[in-house]
Automatic annotation (TrEMBL), chain A:
Organism, scientific name: Acetobacterium bakii
Source domain of life: Bacteria
Statement: the UniProt record of this protein carries the keyword Translocase: no
Protein name, per record: Stage 0 sporulation protein A homolog
Pfam families assigned to the protein according to its UniProt record, in alphabetical order: CheX, Response_reg
Domain Response regulatory span(s) in chain numbering: 5-120
One GO BP annotation of this record: phosphorelay signal transduction system
Sites of 4-aspartylphosphate modification: D55
Keywords tagged on the record: Chemotaxis, Phosphoprotein
Keyword Cell membrane: no
Function, as annotated: May play the central regulatory role in sporulation. It may be an element of the effector pathway responsible for the activation of sporulation genes in response to nutritional stress. Spo0A may act in concert with spo0H (a sigma factor) to control the expression of some genes that are critical to the sporulation process.
Amino acid sequence: MGSLKIMIVDDSTFSVAVLKNMLEKSGHEVVATSFNMHDAIEQAKAGTFDLITMDMTLPDGDGIECSKEILKNTNDAKIIAISSMMDEEIIKNALDVGIKTYLQKPVNQNELDAAIERLFEGEELYDILKNNYEDAFKESIFSFLKREIGGEILIDDNALTSAATRNSSGISVTIGIIGRHSGRCVIDMSEDTALNMTKKILQDDGQSIDTAIAFISEFTNVVAGNACSLLNGLNRSFGLRVSPPTVFRGNDITISLGDFLNKSYIIKTDLGDVFMNAGFQKVMNEWK
Amino acid sequence: MIKPFTTAVTDVLPQLGFQCVTQKEITVKSKKIIASGVVVTLGIVGDKKGNVVYTINKEGAKNIASIMMMGMPVEELDDMAKSALSELSNMLTANAGINFSNDGITVDISVPTLMYGDDIELSMNKDEIICAEFDVDGIKLEISIALD
């Protein structure tokens, strides 16, 4: 996490002094202070802060309104509410505008440190996920195909850099991923490829399309499940679990790949090409 | 099993600006479901495990996206419209999740996956799929649920 650049918004000079003292004791840098809403909004526009502490009562407005304005301009600003007022309604309102954590005054050092750590630990965990999910899914699909199909397995991860949609080759399977960050995995292949793979695995040429569908469901389930286990191994608090597969089959299906962090691959095998897409969204409930 | 989802539809859609939300029949389907239009699926894990699939025909999907975007005309199913429909599926399923939790059942939901096309054959993880049909301002919305 390191040293954070922080702005304190509070109408009381006493509170500002207390918070500044605590934050600096923990090695952070208080680079701005603001005593009213108007000034806080202006300062937030002008500077970049890792964290903003927000009082709920300000002379020219309230902390909810002020946070809402600040978040309009900088969507990813992290705001902690620190106020003497704390009831269910105000917490709900704070959560609704995007405030991350709510602390009640008087705040002690430990409480403040813990709240900040929790907030930024989430950030670091997401980075771990972001930096490792691609390898986890590639390793997972590669080892499955190598073991079950054999032959040459080639993963091309540059073929489809920024496509927002993908035309299905015939059968598409989606698996939902649930955990600290939720996500999903899609595997798509033609009926021929699915049939070829099923024949090879079962060592029997007389396979129906229903068996092939059962194969690709299980294939996707194993690939997503193994990849999530690999990621859970990096940090247990990911808590990733997979939902059962849903299969889509048709000649005219377009898959929308979504607007969250995701990556597509073409996996070339001797029995045909496989398309895989996996991704996770950043949003998580930090109040849990 | 279906109640948390149907309640979510009748609770959430009016808040988004839909005037008339009517629940039609509930059926249990055992075979594959054939769908045309926009199909959005989400995974569910927790005390219950499975999937939910929302189906709307293409015209209806454009109308719904348009109403969700404060009446902005939607000619094509573009990124914005797809994002609105994904968000709708998210809101409905999250709301169903809250309804489940009121009954002491905890579930979490995945990111939605949106697909579209004609004659899509859908197989879910269960032999018995509960389907609920809604009329939303003249648009047919179908929800298929396979939960264990």
